[in-house]
Specification:
Elements (H helix, E strand, L loop, with lengths): L1 H5 L7 H23 L3 H14 L4 H13 L3 H14 L4 H20 L3 H14 L4 H13 L3 H14 L4 H10 L5 H6 L1 H17 L20 H14 L5 H7 L14 H24 L1
Helix pairs in contact: 2-3, 3-4, 4-5, 5-6, 6-7, 6-8, 6-15, 7-8, 8-9, 9-10, 9-12
Length: 290
């Protein structure tokens, strides 16, 4: 900021552009440090500053979306992920993040016993990313609760194909196939047909994610309603309050000279999701399925 002021904010100078770039990358770097230490609201505030100065950097929207998701504001997380996707429609990392949000939407609907809506959300998550076993198992539970046994069984088999050792899938199989062991379930002709179709689908995808399309007819484009705006206002008021803890983080910062912005690790986002949903979802689904 001192350098920018000294050159009178002359945007034509190369020094101005390089200094501004390092400034926004510093905001992003501080935000990641806050995220890793659990100061999500402070991270959002820093990313706001980065985005204000550079609106065409997808990584900033991706990171801010991760922060919003971490504090439970899914609508705003989805809006940021969508903005990032508009900047790079073929970025698989962004599409995967969108699938995680839709899955969480489905979990929330399931908890409220809105099983039809939950199924729609899980289907959207699967549309974004067909290779996550948990998505199929979750949709299987929602179909099971609607007494759609064929659909629930088909999703169970798809989930087992992707992750044969998944505890929740094994548990669900006992409900969908009473008095049958997993080997006999998989050996059945009807099961073999579904497993073959799943194999062909996964193989056709391979690692080429360029053709992955997020349907426009999904919650991806969900408008922000009055209820969410009230939630956002509440959040704004809370993060404006002073928090001296973030100053310690900034004082202990590492070297900030980066050519490109850092992005929060996909694994850290998945870990956050697992810690929040894996334990709670599993217990919740077991309880409500009884």
């Amino acid at each position: 900021m001192i350098t920018i002021n000294k050159i009178n904010n002359n945007e034509a100078l190369p020094l101005y552009q390089s200094t501004l770039r390092q400034l926004v990358l510093s905001y992003n770097d501080f935000a990641i440090e806050c995220y890793l230490k659990g100061y999500f609201e402070e991270a959002i505030s820093l990313l706001d500053q980065a985005i204000k100065r550079e609106r065409d950097e997808k990584g900033f929207y991706l990171n801010r979306g991760d922060c919003f998701k971490a504090i439970g504001y899914l609508s705003f997380a989805l809006a940021d992920y969508q903005q990032a996707l508009e900047l790079d429609p073929r970025d698989w990392v962004i599409i995967s993040r969108i699938s995680l949000v839709h899955h969480q939407y489905g979990i929330n609907e399931y908890r409220e016993k809105r099983f039809i809506e939950a199924e729609k959300c899980f289907t959207t998550a699967i549309t974004c990313n067909i290779k996550v076993a948990q998505y199929y198992i979750s949709r299987s539970w929602s179909r099971f609760m609607q007494k759609n046994l064929p659909g629930a069984r088909a999703d169970l088999l798809r989930g087992i194909y992707l992750d044969p050792d998944m505890e929740e899938g094994i548990m669900l199989s006992a409900r969908l196939y009473p008095n049958e062991n997993i080997d006999s379930i998989l050996a059945a002709k009807s099961s073999q047909k579904i497993l073959k179709q799943m194999k062909e689908l996964v193989v056709s995808e391979q690692l080429d994610h360029d053709e992955v399309v997020v349907s426009h007819n999904t919650l991806t484009y969900e408008p922000i309603g009055k209820e969410n705006m009230a939630q956002f206002t509440e959040w704004i008021n809370s993060y404006k309050k002073s928090n001296n803890k973030v100053k310690t983080i900034l004082d202990e910062r590492p070297d900030l000279t980066f050519p490109v912005p850092r992005v929060i690790s996909v694994e850290k986002v998945r870990t956050a999701l697992a810690s929040d949903s894996k334990s709670r979802v599993r217990s919740k689904l077991r309880t409500e399925a009884k």
